[in-house]
Amino acid sequence: MIHILLLASLSDKVFPLVLGKRTSCAIWDTLSAAFSSPSESRIMSLTMALQELNQKPDEPVANFLKRAKTIAEELAVASHIVRPSAFNLHIYRGLKPEFGAMVSSLLTRTEPVLYDDLHAMLLSHEFLHGSTLNKLNVADSPPANAPTANTAQRLGSDSDSTTPTSQRRGRGRGGRGRGGSNGGISSGRFWCAICRKTNHSTNRCYF
Length: 207
Fold this sequence. Notes:
54% of the residues lie in helices and 3% in strands.
């Protein structure tokens, strides 16, 4: 029963390794010998991948560091530990040119920078000098055709200057009469040009 379960769980690439094994013990021993100790070719492949690692033009630095750390962890599982100084050198070499000044400063340190510290410093540098800040500046800037306060004030004063004098006078309280008159005289008494009453003049109308 165990023999059948082991065979059923194997992939097409692994199955040829146990072909001809008649017992579950033989299958298990074969799989253990094949996968328990990493092959030299696997270690060389991971080492070359770490050496050739480069940050893509549109790749955030966090993703680049994650890829590098994944390779280093796989090497550690294969009993091939990558020293922090060597790991940092692979990171420095693979970063985009915009990190050049920062890399030059980090290389002057006597002790290698820990991964968490390096991660924080590179993220801060990307935020301050990369595309993230440029996107914020573009989002915060007003549209090109949006009027500013000075423009609105200037437009308001220009419209007043083009309004005829007789119409601009009519905006005051005393200019509300028809034809700009403050009132008239009827039978020797003043009458209001607004409400047509005779007990007050136009400039004292409250109706």
